[in-house]
């Protein structure tokens, strides 16, 4: 009879250690991938809230003439006030969802609500006027319905949102133009 020296035991322990290390590396990689996907989802939540706010603003302006007119008056008033105060065109800004009609207590456009555990607060939307490009008046004379001319209001609407802790943030802006036949 031959005596055993425990080589099978040592060999099985080495193989078991290698398998355990392989499993630990795989678990570490999967937890890292899970964190990456989670961060991507949080980023998309912030981005979607900003896009959703801009879409909401655009749709409201497109379908509601009353909101269009009130926004046009607010942009023109803010711009006049800024120019009188020594600022240049395009420097005046105001928060859209805080804009109220004269004498009213409610805003002309209510802010959409997003339920997301990722957002620090609801997205904010700022409106600013954009100076009219040179030569644009000649272009407007050719527009149908303008006759002798049209008034033009160019403005930009920018929405911003922040993720919890200020780590994620997103800002997007759209330009809008309103052409109004002169009366």
UniProtKB/TrEMBL annotation:
Residues 5-45 form the Type 4 fimbrial biogenesis protein PilX N-terminal domain. Pfam families: PilX_N. The chain crosses the membrane at residues 6-26. Keywords: Membrane, Transmembrane, Transmembrane helix. This is Type 4 fimbrial biogenesis protein PilX N-terminal domain-containing protein. It comes from Bacterioplanes sanyensis.
